[in-house]
Amino acid sequence: MNLKTVGMISSYRSLDQRADWLWQQTPDQFGVWGNMQMQAIAPKPDFLLMYQFDFPKPPQPQSLLDKLRRKQQKPQININSILRGVPPERVIYLLREPPLDEVIDINKRNYQEAQKYCGYISGPDDFVSIPDYMPAIWYHNNSFRELNEMPPPKKVADCSWITSGINRTANHRQRLDFLQLVQSSKIKFDLYGRDLPQWANKSGELGNKWYGMAPYYYNLAIENYAENNWYVSEKMWDALLAWCLPIYYGGSAADKLLPPGSFLRLPSLDAKGIAYIQEVTATPDAWYAAKDAIAEARQIILHKLNLLNWLSNFVDKHS
């Protein structure tokens, strides 16, 4: 089989230097899925994925002082130099951040710039040329085969929440406000995450999200954005792949992608939501009732929604 290589560039600094990016999301070795191979740093790939790539801002008018300091400024990125010779019809632009009020102008500018270099431009936004759900990636270190074949792990605890202390947008701050409500209630749950505020009673940070999910019946999966029909993130995929029943707050995209009963809808981030979590997590009954739906959802995530599967289908259509 003549495999087509897919390179990748991202503004997520931890991704674009990793040769093995997403190799754990395929049952085959070296990132192979169907007719393609994911090789993020391939020097001359057949296709290129621009994954949440932020295009440089256009040059701004400079004052005399700015001009005197220009030698100290970082040089502008030459976009053509990082496309590795891939023709536009084989360059894919996928934006995965939600259209929050604070960044919507940045998203629009990225989409506009992408039109100069990319034949396919998509993201979870109504205003992009191809609005679509984000293909699934996840943040467990387990192999694809292990996730695909494992039975439910032993559940020994009620509920967990893995989140961060990011507060740069109103939506992030709303989530932190809800965290305070949850912690002031009688809900029994374990909190994990980075950069959380000092008042947060957390159990620590995790190197592998699996350990903060797999032992729990329930997981609080609270999106930063719930206002359109496209956005759903790894918060859902991670919980389900760990055999948790997600208590989910987000938009309607998840209802269209996953089978009924595979997750629970948190009604709101207020006292009503607190009462709902208390009722559900009081017993593991809801998890047992949802076990078959969780198993079905896991297969959909692993095989259908998987970004590697999405890329393989794209390569098939454009080779």
UniProtKB/TrEMBL annotation:
Name this polypeptide is given: Glycosyltransferase family 10
Family: Belongs to the glycosyltransferase 10 family.
Gene Ontology molecular function terms on file: alpha-(1->3)-fucosyltransferase activity
Keyword line: Glycosyltransferase, Transferase
GO cellular component: membrane
Record-linked PANTHER family: ALPHA- 1,3 -FUCOSYLTRANSFERASE, ALPHA-(1,3)-FUCOSYLTRANSFERASE 10
Domain Fucosyltransferase C-terminal residue range list: 154-269
Keyword Glycosyltransferase: yes
